[in-house]
Design goal:
The chain has 391 residues and is α/β, with parallel strands linked by helices. Helix content is 34%, strand content 19%.
């Protein structure tokens, strides 16, 4: 960041020092290259430059479906991120998009929601929600964290600012669970019922992600739609959410939670259990594009939403600046009327700008810290959003 960002919230203070990104590059002996976003933390980088590189060296990328990479579950997830770069490379060689390699497109665009909203006054959230609407997005996601009464007041203000037709998502992960400031199950139920009066599109991760019975209980109250999934570590977790009817929206970050093959399985779980799928995507525009290449392999009635992080940029004030997000691509994404329209070119369909590697060299260490007030604790955040934080 140009300077350290210090943001107070209910239960503590968050300090943001930087934002990390991972760019994966695979090169074949014919000179073709493939790219992918990855989980931006050091362990994953070491896994890629070591065991995964050794596994892939000498193999024919066209045979990617036959590769049997067996390793620790976390390393396996990293491998599936690298696999997206293989798909980009193979698509360029065969003259087709990644979508075609994954079964084929059923549409050419995918609906976006503008994701931002953290550590502001109720008036600030209302102003930003209206701005996101003006930018052309069909929905806005925010992170509440001001205490139950203020959170409710905030949602009310956003609805007034956006009108009745704008989708509003409330992402409660972390912000409702901070030590002695944790929202109790009773408060969460009361707040969910109260928030429902303002017709939010969903309430996301209001409870500990691993407590599926608690999610099932809350969903059965039918106050409002419930979303969860971005912290599931295995397909079995998504399967349990679906089989037990514990939520309305399954969420997954395909770039750090198991790759494209697992993503398709989660899509089908949603479809087969009358749920919908919504991407978690909290990185660069390369990650947004990669997720979109998979999302368009299913109808919007199944894969409804793709998260688009709204960073501060010239003419747009939002969370904080992260120019790497857009500069990692040589040309801008084609976003019209709240939809990302996919390119027709091969592989990912867009050129990666390698100049960002030298322009934004990696700085070791966590990118963000939560300083919890009671009990006093500092929690460091690295680049993998699917795992619990390092304390």
């Amino acid at each position: 960041m140009p300077e350290k960002i210090v943001l107070p919230f209910w239960g503590g203070i968050r300090t943001i020092l930087k934002r990390d990104a991972m760019l994966i590059k695979v090169t074949a002996d014919n000179g073709l290259t493939g790219y992918a976003p990855g989980p931006a933390f050091t362990r994953a980088a070491d896994e890629i430059s070591g065991v995964i590189k050794n596994f892939l060296t000498g193999k024919d990328p066209q045979l990617w479906k036959t590769f049997e990479f067996n390793s620790h579950p976390e390393t396996l997830k990293t491998y599936y991120a690298v696999e997206v770069a293989l798909l980009d490379l193979v698509g360029k060689y065969e003259g087709c998009s990644i979508s075609e390699l994954m079964g084929g497109r059923v549409r050419s665009n995918i609906k976006l929601y503008g994701s931002a909203g953290m550590y502001m006054s109720p008036e600030g959230y209302a102003e930003e929600s209206a701005a996101v609407k003006d930018w052309g997005f069909l929905a806005y996601k925010m992170r509440p964290g001001s205490g139950p009464d203020q959170d409710l007041y905030t949602v009310e203000g956003m609805r007034k600012a956006t009108g009745p037709d704008m989708g509003l998502m409330v992402d409660a992960h972390t912000w409702w669970r901070m030590g002695d400031k944790n929202y109790s199950t009773e408060i969460i139920h009361e707040l969910a019922q109260a928030i429902s009066g303002f017709q939010p599109y969903w309430l996301e991760e209001p409870l500990p992600p691993e407590d599926h019975p608690a999610y099932r209980e809350l969903k059965n109250k039918k106050y409002l739609p419930i979303a969860t999934g971005e912290h599931e570590q295995e397909l079995s977790g998504f399967t349990d959410l679906a089989l037990t009817n514990a939520c309305d929206f399954l969420q997954m970050d395909v770039c750090c939670q198991g790759g494209f093959e697992m993503g398709l399985k989660v899509f089908d779980l949603a479809r087969d259990h009358n749920m919908k799928f919504a991407f978690h995507s909290w990185g660069t525009e390369l990650e947004v594009l990669a997720a979109a290449q998979l999302g368009v392999c299913r109808e919007e009635s199944v894969v409804e939403w793709l998260e688009y992080p709204c960073y501060t940029s010239p003419g747009k004030k939002s969370m904080y600046p992260f120019p790497l997000s857009s500069e990692i691509l040589k040309s801008p994404l084609n976003i019209q009327s709240g939809y990302l329209h996919l390119p027709d070119s091969h592989g990912l369909g867009i050129e990666v700008n390698e100049a960002v590697i030298e322009l934004y060299p990696f700085i070791p260490g966590p990118w963000s810290y939560f300083h919890q007030s009671s009990p006093q604790k500092t929690i460091a955040v690295t680049g993998d959003h699917s795992v619990k934080w390092v304390q």
